[in-house]
């Protein structure tokens, strides 16, 4: 299936590794020109070179930290200069520290909300006018399955990411007639550095070995295994494609069936 992504310009946030990198690779494989971004310049250079070596869309990168207030404006200007036009924005951030919500102080909530919500809203606001004028655009926001079924010991993530749901749905209602769609992609347990970090912490807290914790986690997923960044990236590529033009305002789960609600 031709997804109609050739020569589209895509900015993928937090894409030096994990879910963001999986998305960037998938978009480039479909012929999109991609700008990766993150804090690790060496890793970004390595991953960008790897994508360019595959012969699909062209990849470039910007070193940036979403914790800095000036980052949205700088990312917008530099990515637009590199791509010529930003047709696709993938909003993605790292997760906050694990822990119970009852233990999180207001300062932790405020600082993580700035990075995980306000920076995304600001950047989207900069990208959106050109999409609407052109009559085509895709905004995909990566959140977590915790916005549907809160995840134990990830209180900050559950609370903060949930606010993106109302924002994304509201935007979807407001701009769809201009050819711009807003959707959310919700990962379950995907085999990334973040998942491995959480599994190691779970093992330490429970006194179990890491392999036992990993096997237990996989057994609780209906498909019986963790997902891969490649699988996740493939779903993202479809959602931002020409073929997905009638999917708007949705929360798409990529979780192997782990979320128990209908």
Question: Would you mind describing this structure in some detail?
Answer:
By secondary structure, this protein is α/β, with parallel strands linked by helices. The chain has two domains: 207 residues, 3-Layer(aba) Sandwich (Rossmann fold), CATH 3.40.50; 36 residues. Helix content is 47%, strand content 14%. The chain contains eight helices and seven strands. Strand 2, helix 2 and strand 3 form a beta-alpha-beta unit. The chain starts with 8 loop residues before the first strand and ends in an 8-residue tail after the last strand. The model has no long low-confidence stretch (mean pLDDT 95). Belongs to the short-chain dehydrogenases/reductases (SDR) family.
Question: Brief overview, please?
Answer:
The protein is α/β, with parallel strands linked by helices and about 260 residues long.
Write out key terms for the chains shown.
alpha/beta; SDR family oxidoreductase; 262 residues; 8 helices; 2 domains; SDR; single chain; Rossmann fold; globular
CATH class value of the largest domain: Alpha Beta
Instruction: Give the uncertain stretches in residue-range form.
Output: none
Secondary structure tally: strands? 7
Number of individual domains: 2
CATH-assigned fold name of the largest domain: Rossmann fold
Could you tell me the mean pLDDT? 95
Report the radius of gyration as a whole number of Å. 18 Å
Strand order of the largest sheet: 3-2-1-4-5-6-7
How many helices in DSSP terms? Answer: 8
Distance between the termini: 29 Å
Q: Summarize the amount of helix as a percent range.
A: 40-55%
- Structural category is alpha/beta
Shape: globular
- The CATH architecture category of the largest domain equals 3-Layer(aba) Sandwich
The topology string of helices and strands comes to EHEHEHEHEHEHHHE
CATH H-level superfamily title of the largest domain: NAD(P)-binding Rossmann-like Domain
Largest sheet: 7 strands, parallel
Which percent band covers the strand fraction? 5-15%
């Amino acid at each position: 299936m031709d997804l109609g992504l050739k020569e589209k310009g895509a900015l993928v946030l937090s894409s030096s590794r994990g879910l963001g990198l999986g998305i960037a690779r998938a978009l480039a494989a479909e012929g999109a020109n991609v700008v990766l971004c993150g804090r690790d310049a060496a890793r970004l250079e390595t991953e960008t070179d790897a994508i360019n070596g595959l012969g699909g869309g062209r990849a470039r990168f910007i070193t940036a930290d979403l914790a800095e207030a000036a980052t949205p404006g700088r990312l917008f200007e530099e990515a637009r200069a590199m791509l010529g036009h930003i047709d696709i924005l993938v909003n993605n951030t790292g997760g906050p520290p694990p822990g119970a919500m009852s233990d999180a102080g207001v300062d932790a909530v405020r600082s993580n909300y700035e990075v995980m919500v306000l920076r995304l809203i600001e950047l989207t606001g900069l990208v959106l006018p050109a999409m609407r004028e052109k009559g085509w655009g895709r905004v995909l926001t990566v959140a977590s399955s915790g916005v549907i079924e809160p995840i134990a010991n990830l209180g900050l993530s559950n609370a903060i990411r949930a606010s993106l749901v109302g924002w994304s749905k509201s935007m979807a209602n407001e701009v769809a007639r201009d050819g711009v769609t807003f959707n959310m992609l919700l990962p379950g347990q995907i085999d990334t550095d973040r998942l491995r970090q959480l599994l190691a912490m779970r093992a330490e807290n429970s006194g179990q070995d890491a392999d036992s914790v990993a096997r237990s986690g996989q057994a609780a997923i209906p498909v019986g295994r963790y997902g891969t960044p490649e699988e996740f990236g493939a779903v993202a590529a479809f959602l931002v494609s020409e073929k997905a033009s009638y999917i708007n305002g949705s929360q798409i789960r990529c979780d192997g069936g782990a979320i128990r609600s209908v």
